Automatic annotation (TrEMBL):
Residues 1-20 form the signal peptide. Residues 33-337 form the Beta-lactamase-related domain. The keyword Transport does not apply. This is Beta-lactamase. It comes from the Bacteria. InterPro entries: Beta-lactam-related, Beta-lactam/transpept-like, Beta-lactamase-like_AB/R. It comes from Flavobacterium hibernum. GO terms for molecular function: hydrolase activity. Keywords: Hydrolase, Signal.
Length: 352
């Protein structure tokens, strides 16, 4: 009997390994085909399936280099940063420093003076699920002023002026994507922990996971990819400033797979926090939102995902907790359609 059980276990292990290898080959085939049709766009992809990691990458670090993009090549995460920030918020909830339904009033830094119409109105969960109704930073105007570094002129005083001059929440309770909402969440975290956002994300995500290529302030590294705008022109990486909690983290496929492995482990601090972010805090006919997490569900699958677009790169992270897989796709050009098409094709033809 014991021999039979050992034999069965060995067969299951071989079967699981072969299944994983088949998935990785099929994903690689999709990515390779895309690169052959678009050789000007470099790409790095990481995939985790039942704790087994797989990577594929195509293209060079930059046009003048023969160094190939690989799992360690640095890209801009852009708004994927929000999923890290929301995980920090959920960790603060588990530590009983805040509650998701707390009003933001008492957690904001000095200088903010909410209009009477806004007091005891906006919850932390409203910020995290993009339904606060607060006005946002005018990116269109900022891009006109400085197309390479549009957020460079945004500082603490800019935010205070926007919030203090707001007298009405026109879209409260309705989904409206918000950079300023996540910037405020970063400031709330700084308030409750008495540390900078940089220190908090290092203490609670970067250092515990030993993801040494996940960068905050200093990203002048040799393995950094070159970003390109939609027309193919070179685009600078965004520089760190007060808006960092909304989109300024840089990382690579390897580190993000390490993060996803932790997210998918329901027994870890980060995994428990991720489960909190997966709860539905907003729903309409078009979308469901957790805390910083888009929820896409059908009768067989529930996917949690977050995309990101800087001025020069497009990214997306996605995972299926029930089936225990996750994927990160990183492009060195701003091309949200390509990014979405790749994820859709992989999900529809490989992972479902």
């Amino acid at each position: 009997m014991k021999t039979s059980l050992k034999f069965s276990a060995a067969l299951l292990l071989i079967s699981t390994f072969s299944f994983g290898q088949d998935i990785s080959r099929r994903i690689d085939s999709i990515i390779k085909d895309n690169y052959q049709r678009n050789p000007e766009i470099g790409i790095s992809v990481g995939f985790i399936n039942n704790n087994e990691e797989y990577y594929t990458a195509y293209g060079n670090l930059n046009e003048g280099s023969q160094i190939k993009i690989n799992k360690n090549s640095i890209f801009e995460l852009a708004s994927i940063t929000k999923i890290l920030t929301s995980n920090l918020i959920a960790q603060a909830v588990s530590e009983k420093k805040i509650k998701v339904d707390d009003y933001i009033d008492r957690f904001l830094p000095k200088g903010y003076v909410l209009n009477e119409n806004l007091k005891n109105k906006i919850k932390i969960s409203d910020l995290a699920s993009h339904q606060s109704g607060l006005p946002d930073i005018d990116f269109g105007k900022l891009i006109e002023l400085n197309p390479q570094q549009p957020v460079s002129s945004v500082d603490g005083q800019t935010l205070i002026m926007i919030i203090n001059n707001c007298s009405e929440l026109k879209d409260y309770g309705k989904y409206r994507y918000s950079t300023i909402g996540y910037t405020l969440l970063g400031q709330i975290l700084e308030n409750v922990y008495g540390k900078s956002y940089d220190e908090i994300i290092r203490d609670k995500i970067i250092d515990p996971l030993q993801i040494t290529n996940t960068l905050t302030k200093d990203f002048e590294v040799k393995n950094r990819t070159v970003a390109h705008n939609p027309n193919g022109g070179i685009q600078e990486f965004f520089k760190w400033n007060i808006t960092a909690p909304a989109g300024l983290i840089k990382s690579n496929a390897s580190d993000m797979i390490t993060f996803l492995k932790e997210v998918l482990n329901k027994d870890t601090t980060i995994g428990k926090a991720a489960i909190e972010t997966e709860k539905v805090f907003y729903k309409d006919e078009k979308r469901e939102m957790g805390l910083g997490t888009n929820i896409v569900a059908d009768e067989k699958n529930t996917l949690y995902m977050k995309s990101g677009d800087s001025m020069g790169q497009s990214t997306i992270i996605c995972y299926n907790r029930t089936k225990n897989w996750g994927i990160i796709i990183l492009l060195n050009q701003r091309n949200s359609k390509m990014r979405s098409d790749l994820l859709n094709k992989i999900c529809d033809t490989v992972l479902k």
